[in-house]
Amino acid sequence: MSIPKKRLGKMPAGEIxxxxxxxxxxxxIKGTAAIATASLLQSSLVRAAETPEPTFTxxxxxxxxxxxxxxxxxxxxxxxxxxxxxxxxxxPAILAADFPDKIKPWRVTIDGECDxxxxxxxxxxxxxxxxxxxxxxxxxxxxxxxVIPWVGFPLADLIKRAQxxxxxxxxxxxxxxxxxxxxxxxxxxxxxPYVEGLRMDEAMNPLTLLSVGLYGRELLGxxxxxxxxxVPWKYGFKSIxxxxxxxxxxxLPRSAWMKAxxxxxxxxxxxxPNVDHPRWSQSRExxxxxxxxxxxxxxxxxxxxxxxxxxxxxxxxxx
Amino acid sequence: xxxxxxxxxxxxxxxxxxxxxxxxLVTNQLGANPIETVTRDSGLWALRFLxxxxxxxxxxxxxxxxxxxxxxxxxxxxxxxxSLHMLLYLGLDQFFDFSEIVKDIIKxxxxxxxxxxxxxxxxLAITSNNKMVKRLGGRRWKKLHRLTYFIAIAxxxxxxxxxxxxxVEPLLYATIVGxxxxxxxxxxxxxxxxxxxxxxxxx
Lengths: 319, 203
Description:
Number of strands of chain A: 13
Strand content of chain A: 15-25%
Radius of gyration of chain A: 19 Å
Number of domains of chain A: 1
Helix content of chain A: 10-25%
Number of strands of chain B: 0
Largest sheet of chain A: 8 strands, mixed
Number of helices of chain A: 10
Oligomer: heterodimer
Largest sheet of chain B: none
Strand content of chain B: under 5%
Structural class of chain A: alpha+beta
Mean pLDDT of chain B: 91
Radius of gyration of chain B: 19 Å
Mean pLDDT of chain A: 87
Structural class of chain B: mainly alpha
Helix content of chain B: over 70%
Distance between the termini of chain B: 52 Å
């Protein structure tokens, strides 16, 4: 893996990662040789010592934040499901250490049923929006959970700018497809690229976030840099990472997980302790860092904000 | 080297996975979800020791190396790591809430299979000493210990079912188990056929 030395000098100042972290990343790369052993023995080679200093300043503290204590930065950035960078939890932190490539501009297209489609560089995309911090619970379909201080802005703000038309019933999101940068895509574990979707009213809900950071700084590759979705009342896989396309569509989008297992992963995938995954119970979860499991709450505890979206719907049927 | 010393060495080596887990837990090296890691790893080591146990006979057939004296210990390590796996599930997954556990066993096929697999290991562990072999008689003992084949197949199915999407690892173990069991099946039918022949000749 050769990285041109000049690279640092060419980057705009705002994008330069703190030198300490940069050095750390090189260590991660050196560790690549040990990946095979690491995954075999399930040991985590990646150990960020402590929470790094925040880089976002003047963050507004958003509504809806939980008072629960946040899962340590270390855990949030080393325990990841991001199959584009390998299927075990430790490998994204290693394989996505240099993701996304700082030389290539990150472009996001907004298209489909809207009056103001467009293609934006990442900086232009987020410039109009006020970034805020939102501390949300995050519940994985596998039965573990975290509390994560996200940085982002409501998806609704972006949607209003794009001006969807009357045909727009759903929003479909697509992750980057680039097997060179995302080695996990070289194998057909899922039908790449990763696709997710929300109903328009879910997308417009004030809880739904487009996140660009966590713990007060830019997202790391393993957390879905540079921009990802956060839908805190749904299982984690709905919160699609590293987005390159946002499309307004008339028909229900088929997500990557729906294609992989339609019986197991539905479109809605709301956190629901009363509806089990076909293979395991969803009634409890292990909060990362805790020994015993705790009870899972309907809509991950966000019922006040989102239960009305599903009024009259049989949640056992619409999984 | 005397056999007893060789056995001692194997005994110590077989404890290394446990040592690795304990050290990992104490030094916080098992990632953000150490309980899941340890539960998974103990199950995986039970399966690995099971493969080793099943390899003893084919090794004798094909390589003419007799490792039979080590088989009992390897088999007991299957039981040891499977017990650890089971205890972690009962204690840290279900917190010994037995009504929940029963519900889980009934409702979830992969738990059901895991439960029966572990149950099948118990009589094998109990009858593993010389006294029990004598009490049962060699033939009956051998028959009982054919449960190992069921355990091998069931534990691979258990592994396959719990994996969310990428089935490569369980399929790898299924292949190994298949490679260890199929030659036995082949031999079994071969010997039955030759027995039939003998019968016709003597008629």
